[in-house]
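Render this sequence as a predicted structure.
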Amino acid sequence: IMAFVTINAVRIAGMSAFVPSKIESNYELNIIEPEERIKYVTSVGIENRRVSPAELTSADLCFHAAKSLIRSLAWNEKDIDCLIFVSQTPDYILPSTSCILQSRLGLSTECFAIDISLGCSGWVYGMFVISSLMASARFKKALLLAGDTISKVVSPYDRSTKPLFGDAGTATAISYDDSSDGFIFHTAVDGSGKDAIIVPGGMFRHPFSESLLEYHEFEDGNKRNELNLVLNGMDVFSFAISEVPKSIRALLDYASMRLDDIDFFILHQANKMINETVRNKLKIPKDKMLYSLKDYGNTSSASIPLTIVAQDLDLYKSKILKCVASGFGVGLSWASIYFTLKDTVLLPIGVI
């Protein structure tokens, strides 16, 4: 049994993304030996990442993305019926960051607002939830804000995480549209793989204590504490190259479409090795696979919309584009979506 859902009469009205101004180059990263840096960059595909200062949060990046998109669409803030914030780096344990963003953006107090705690698959899951709400509640306008500042939870001494992750916040505007083809989804989860990508300490399973701040050196030479992200690269690689191609094939079969029918494929920007393996398994032509890894790294829940707006925007103005995106990772969870871009407002990436 596979989980497929078709949601009609919704469309992507616009997309935007914001990143921090600070750039970190993997060519200058001290935890990688100088002679190894070029080899590393070639294999993972990440030259630069954007990292946020302590005072800049995922919510701030998403706020600016949303503000610019609302302005460009000429939407009235009070007409926005729904706001969903997808992140694993929220402002607080409580309250929900979506509630704070409702107020910051000047949305109506009647706006439906919730947080979703998901990472790499988060944008696709968020699209599922927000479009389902629009279909059932007859919302007309909605905002999906997806962003993470994972650089804040990686150890500065960990070669398995530090060179991979960048920060970004995105906004996707969805509108009700009877004439639209809508979206098709496939979703999946396997929580038995939770330890492959995890921050083990600091919440209620392992509450904060000063001992969690102590750094420990591991067999691979990396150092981190219990509040830092742990990434088992081999487990993630095996999972991704197995499940993502199956998910995309199954989605296209369900939609009675072929790979040739799709204009662009957008994968969560995990790393070049994973994404190219998936591309080769599916036999997707290079010019149909979109990337933003080189300049922004792995931006977790923000990576799919960021990758779309990182392209030459003139590409999107001439026709209806058929797209498939797939998010995969922390959870372990994965999800794929078919959607079209038609008269979609795509803004250049903003910088804070």
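Summary. The helical segments are 34-44, 58-73, 97-105, 122-137, 233-254, 272-282, 293-296, 303-309. The two ends are 45 Å apart (CA to CA).
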